[in-house]
Specification:
There is one protein chain. This protein is an alpha+beta fold. It is 39% helix and 12% strand. The protein contains seven helices and six strands, in the order βαβββααββαααα. The chain has a three-stranded antiparallel beta sheet with strand order 1-3-2, covered by helices on one side. A hairpin with a 2-residue loop joins strand 2 and strand 3. The longest helix has 20 residues. It is globular and about 55 Å long.
Length: 203
């Protein structure tokens, strides 16, 4: 159950984001996407009830032991590609694909979660907002482009796979600005340059 914090209940922007997530989750129905069950307001407390996924995030696995076995990465990758395809077919761009937002259940099913940054459209007059996480953000998000396409999610998914395969993020820098600059100006490095044992078809 996700509940909007009381101190944000009077913040229209956060309420809009919360409700946007609830509506986005409710629209999707796929094995590899955390499903929404109910959304509502109980005495002024806004809540979202979601499917419970018994498992761990990819981020937790990376924190435990660095890189993840290539075969497992490809298996997770295939499931995430299906999840994003379903979201994109429903005109949703996730905008924050990263290890923290992928849960692997005890049954080995990978599920995409946290659609709080998902947007269906950009309204005229809105200011572009840089959304996402610096380590995995697409160049167009780093620039603050308002109208994103599915490619933004695919880039972030690729950056996530890079981290899973190598145990490190694609770009490193002294601060967030330095990392964003690298996403904008540099080609992502080859995973085989970091780990030659990774197969060529995965690179």
């Amino acid at each position: 159950i996700k509940v909007l914090a009381p101190h944000l209940s009077d913040d229209d922007e956060y309420i809009e984001r919360f409700m946007r997530e609830a509506k986005a989750v409710a629209r999707l129905n796929h094995t590899n996407v955390i499903s929404g069950i109910d959304v509502g307001d109980a005495g002024g407390v806004k809540y979202l009830v979601m499917e419970y996924a018994d498992g761990v995030t990819v981020a937790s696995l990376l924190n435990r032991g660095g890189s993840i076995d290539e075969e497992r990465v490809l298996w997770v990758g295939m499931q995430m590609a299906r999840a994003l395809d379903h979201a994109h077919r429903n005109n949703l761009i996730h905008r924050d694909v990263k290890p923290d937002n992928i849960i692997i259940t005890k049954d080995g099913v990978a599920k995409l979660c946290d659609l709080g940054l998902a947007r269906t459209e950009h309204h005229e007059g809105e200011e572009p907002a840089r959304m996402g996480t610096a380590a995995y953000i697409s160049p167009e998000q780093a620039r603050g482009d308002a109208n994103l396409t599915e490619r933004a999610d695919l880039y972030s998914l690729g950056a996530t796979f890079f981290h899973m395969l190598t145990g490190r993020e694609p770009f490193e820098g002294a601060d967030v600005s330095a990392v964003l600059a690298k996403h904008l100006t540099e080609e992502p490095p080859s995973v085989r340059r970091i780990d030659p044992t990774i197969s060529e078809h995965t690179d």
